[in-house]
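dumping the sequnces here before i forget
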Amino acid sequence: MNVFLAQQADRIDVPAIDYAAILPMLIILGAACIGVLFEAFLPKHQRWPGQVVLTLLAIAAAGVALGAYVGDSPARGVTTLSGTLSIDKPALFLWGTLLALALGAVLLIADRSIEPGGAFVAQAGIAPGTVQDRAQVGSTGMQTEVFPLALFALGGMMAFCSANDLLTMFIALEVLSLPLYLMCGLARRRRLLSQEAAVKYFLLGAFASAFFLYGLALLYGYAGSVKLADIANATAGTDRSDTLLFAGLGLLMVGLLFKGSVGPFHTWTPDVYQGAPTPVTAFMAACTKVAAFGGMLRVLAVAFESTSWEWRGVLWGVAIISMVIGAVLGLTQTDVKRMIAYSSIAHAGFLLVGTMALTEDGLSGTLFYLLAYGFTTLAAFGVISLVRDSSGEATHLSAWAGLAKRSPLLAAVFTFLLLALAGIPLTSGFVGKFVVFSAALSDGMAPLVVIALVFSAVAAFFYLRVVVLMYFSEPAPDGPTVSVPGAFTTAAITLGVAVTLLLGVLPAFALNWAGAGGFALS
Amino acid sequence: MTWLLALILLPLAGALVVAGLRSNDRLATTVALAVSLVELALIVPFWLAYDPAGERIQQASSMEWIPTFGIHISFGTDGISLIMIAVIALLVPIIIGTLNSTGKLPEGRSAGGFLSLVLVQEALTIAVFAATDVFLFYVLFEIMLIPMYFLIGGYGGANRQYAAVKFFLYSFLGGLIMLASAIGAYSLASDELGQGTFDWATLVEVVRDAPASTQIWLFLGFFLAFAIKAPLVPFHTWLPDAAGQAPIGVTVLLVGVLDKVGTFGFLRYCLPMFPEASERLAPLVLVLAVAGVIYGSVLAAGQQDMKRFVAYVSIAHFGFIALGIFAFTPQSVVGSATYMLNHSLATGMLIIVVGIIAARGGSTRISDYGGMAKVTPILGGMLLIAGLSTLSLPGTNSFISEFLVLLGSFDTRPVYAIIATVGMVLAAAYVLWLYQRIMTGPVRGDALVGAVEDPAARSASVVGGGGRRVGGPGTAVAPEVGEKKAIRDLSVKEIAVLAPLVVLIVGLGFYPKPVLDTVTPSVEATLTAVQER
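..and the predicted 3d for all of it:
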């Protein structure tokens, strides 16, 4: 060993690190580490306030660092850490989106006014139905590790969006996934459902990671490098094996599509969205989708643009399947959280339409869509967490009947969010659909756009069903109560609704941000 | 600020105020009525400011909205949208004025909520007719569905939820398909001009020179949306449900005004933007139009429910309007454009009268009535006037329009014109048959019978024995009648509210010149675009 080091010492170059560029990510990951230390050293009663302050401060500081860097960031982006991370305009936009969405999600996670002690159980390891579990029901203790876990996941997502080679991407994928698996199992109520969700997500997620890794290996075999740019060079006119390339790309995409909950790789989505604590569902639905599609955009645009003719047909099929599954199965759901889960599958199909477009408009459209969708779905889950009965959240649709009579403001807010998810004009959802579909149309995907529009209308039906239920049905006598949200949840919902409205009415500034520049291609 | 912008903003502001008065129904109704009357008064300077010989689009105003896509918030009016805006402003105060005569709102619903939605609907509908940016038009086209959805779903009949969702989904789907076409037109423009725009006038210039195959696809997108909106057979099935379930005032708005967005769209978007496609696909549209005329007429004759009757009558009339538009002659298109106005007046009045009858008689089934004119002669007269205008009797407003449509289309499309003429004959049959069943013959129906006979005498006879129940269908249900309030004829106030419609129906029947003069230059400009090609 010593000999080896002595021989190599003069040849090791310390890679240049552009600290200013990656500062936001460093802040988040650093704060996550401090959060773990808080868990170890702070007394129990100080942990919750300590973690909340630390997490919010970290996100705010990362936002400030990002804002300071964006102003004078180079137009073509920079690659740093020996080319493993590429901090270009889309990456910065995605980081900003992730930080803003995470802020909202953390506010939901931090809320302890709706459910005494917060939405998270103290000891998640206790098997449901045992004596200890029954004892735990009465306590208001909370697993405050959820905060550092959220920060780790967030850091992973940020790395995932900017990863410039597949290996970094894989590591980032694991960093973002592992905390999420844990967080899914932490629900205070309906423990069994929550644990099932965690296990299911973990097992299927592990499978998807394996697919990703296998694809990575095949692509390495094909190109002799894991760097996206090298793969792009290798695909440009060589006599290497196409089998390796397309098998590798296919497996890689399975892993990515799984994370983005695109049908037919969606099967985990409804169960996990339903079982996970609602704040975590909001975090996953908003942020994971951003990260997954951010990664997908980069991989397809940077590494596989020249072969787009070969794979686009397959992705057409995937997008159509996703829209069909999301829209049609969404119609049959009786649980609000599952319904929004299917809606997210349909939205993933729409997002894929934009992702495939591989043009400047396609990129900026998809980025805008992610921003818009994230805030809407975040606020929607925030609202869902407020409608409760004695056993926790009343997510069965029948419980929502006549809600407008009992709580007109909540019904109005939720209606607005549902209209945004349906893509009605003057909401961000419509502008998102418009930019994505117009990009796809000008890139010659007219039939796909028409199909997407038809399924938008089909999906609108199940959003409308909830509106009908809330406004035109008589309330059930033993219906749920609507909790008065605490400051944190109010802030999160307000943030989501305000952004949904703002991006719907005055989208110009966000469209400019999203269209600031393309991926760095080196 | 132009008069047009004032017309759009005033009802919105009014809606806000009225929504704040939900606790006080009387005050809310008064304020809403006042707002709608001021709106109607604003029509006068608005109409006077319009110069038929002037620019194609007048009172234009524009501001940037989404510069990335060349989208503007721009409004303007031509003769056709002018008359449609005027008729909305006329109908809304009449709807509010007859609110109490045409049936009660459901339990627990306030008049304030209802009226603020009506005012929002008024503003949005005016804005749709006034939009001169295709994107803005689409946005308003879809947004317009939301208040209507809540009006039908929140205040309608027993099956209102189904009707509201069906209405929304049909129109929403049509709108989305139109959006695809609008984006297609936008990308044509951005290829051609280097920078995309949604400005209507610019898009017309660019798209009308596009190759025929492209035009046909884009045309179909717009056409589908408009064919659903102005229901052409076979896209009509939502209308009888929506019109049948909606409260009367909303049915007036829906059938009288909202559906005209469809025929207006044919004139404003389909013809000028896609002249070649319009010409090539005209036979298809004409088949649908004539099928609508015959189908609507036959089904109207067979309806048992008065509101559904009106819906099918309208389907027949929309067939006429589409026939005139796609016959491409100046007479027929002028006929169609004025028909849009006249149909609003005639059908609007018919629906309101039907609503008053239903509210008094407690039923919308035609067979529950008979001999009503003996009890309520003035109401009978109103139904007759509305009906005669609906069947286009010479001397009523609709006659001129229908005559122009048939005359114009006979020049170029004689076969379709002849078949459509059959619709005119059928119209006479179904309207007169409706009048005959409700107003003439022996007095029938529990409410009516109660009004003619002396309640005390009849309840005594029931106590005396059931044997006398053979007297007629009406007496069979006599026992409860004694407690019912006798049916009233129209009050002076109700006559006053309906009077403007009567005056216009008869007045425009004899002197249609102001409307024809307003519309003709816009129609000619539209047709030159088609023929110039």
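Chain B has one domain: 3-441+489-532.
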